[in-house]
Amino acid sequence: MIDRYHAWALEYARKKGAGQDARDIAHDVLVALLENPPEDLHSGSLHALLGARLRFRVLDSQQGRREGARELSSKLRANETAPSDRARRRRAARQAVEALDQLCSTERRLLRMRYIDDMRAVDIAESTGQSAAAVRSALFRARASLRLLLGLGA
User: Fold this and answer.
1) The whole model's pTM is what?
2) How far is residue 144's CA from residue 154's CA, in Å, rounded to a whole number?
3) What pLDDT, in 10s, does the model give residues 104-128?
4) DSSP states of 12-43 as a string?
5) What angle do CA 84, 74, 96 make, to 5 degrees?
6) How many Cβ atoms are within 10 Å of 30's Cβ, its own excluded?
7) Which regions are flagged for Basic and acidic residues bias (predicted)?
8) Tens digit of pLDDT for each residue in 130-140?
9) Alpha carbon separation from 12 to 4, 18, 26, 82, 128 (Å, rounded)
10) Of the options 3.40.50.2300, 1.10.287.470, 3.40.50.720, 1.10.10.10, the CATH number for the domain spanning 87-154
11) CA dist., res. 54 & res. 12, Å (int)
């Protein structure tokens, strides 16, 4: 299924405005469909279902970026640098480090390459000798593991 629909999903995500996140969004939506397919799925309705899920995911991504920028802007204007805010940030950072330490070394390395080194899945694939699809899938699983460790759900 992935081979058949991947190119279409990628192009569709780009057309809907996903930008550089299009590849990750398309991959995540396809993997989610594979892992948890709807019971009433017919072959003719797969494009419609995939399109709807891609649209929602792209909109969520765009909205998250806007809200994050607005939140940062409002915090800077409100000058939220009180000791309690700094303590909360330190506590959250400590929890994140502890959760990262609980991940296996491969998951930690992939997350570091993706988010700290700011490498794309394709670049990670080249440096590790894996396919880009395998890297995206491993990143998806690593993020899910990290969310569970942080108590944020799957």
Assistant:
1) 0.46
2) 5
3) 889 999 998 988 888 899 999 999 9
4) HHHHTT-GGGHHHHHHHHHHHHHHS--TT--G
5) 50
6) 22
7) 65-86
8) 999 999 999 99
9) 14, 9, 8, 45, 28
10) 1.10.10.10
11) 8
Per-residue exposure over 106-128, b if at least 16 CB sit within 10 Å of its own CB, e if not: ebeebbebbeeeebbbeebbeee
Could you please report the per-residue DSSP string of 68-111?
Answer: HHHHHHHHHHHT---HHHHHHHHHHHHHHHHHHHHS-HHHHHHH
CB 23 within 8 A of CB 136: yes
Amino acid at 36: N
3-class secondary structure, 154: coil
Q: Which of 116, 149, 19 is nearest to 124 (CA)?
A: 116
- Which residue carries 């070394």 as its tokens? 105
Domain boundaries, the chain: 1-80, 87-154
Look-up of token digits 């296996």:
104
